[in-house]
């Protein structure tokens, strides 16, 4: 009889232990689900994606964790709006195409000059825009236009732009050069004309200006940014999130708050529109 009681008790104990394990497992699962439902890749951290490598002036010295460079600074400003300390920000790298491809993401949001388009919205979410591109005049050091510092200075030079673009509209309407604007089928053709001395300067959007002067033109120089031509807008850059992310609304609210309090303009002036990067021409 004692043996039967012992076995019964042992069986009862086993049932209790098994039930306890199941309950604990259920709790763990609930906790995991709760974290994933928050929308963040890692609970308590903000995971931000950018390019590999990330270029000046968007990120300085390919070190986004420094907060130096326009997009790095914007990322930390958004993090602050979302309630994260700088120490809670985690950086990951991705290619441009990986970030905007359909499917799960290893980042909460990604920024590397993504223009907001309807086509891309089919695969990913975008925040409200944190930057709108401007049109920019570039040249090379050997060009007679290299010393220009104002729109008036540019009028006497031969200047080109790609056909059918906002760049050409800005050239014709904002600069209104004394001679007819030179029109090219592509930015590559315009760049070659600049290199060959066929034109003294060309107009491209700001991201293209940074790329051409930094990577493709020998002695490339940014003369400056132009005001928007009347009735035109530039490409708008947004933070990329996974499609239907639970974070899209809050991230957009954070960007909106930074726009409304002037932070985005201040950061753009500091990193993109300063005298040693791309001054705004008058």
UniProtKB/TrEMBL annotation:
Domain called Solute-binding protein family 3/N-terminal: residue spans: 45-275
Domain of life of the organism encoding this protein: Bacteria
InterPro entries found in the cross-reference section: Iontro_rcpt_C (IPR001320), Solute-binding_3/MltF_N (IPR001638)
Domain named Ionotropic glutamate receptor C-terminal: residues: 45-274
CDD domains per UniProt: PBP2_peptides_like
Alphabetical UniProt keywords: Signal
Extent of the signal sequence: 1-30
Keyword Repressor: no
Pfam families: SBP_bac_3 (PF00497)
The protein's name: ABC transporter substrate-binding protein
Organism this protein belongs to: Leifsonia stereocauli
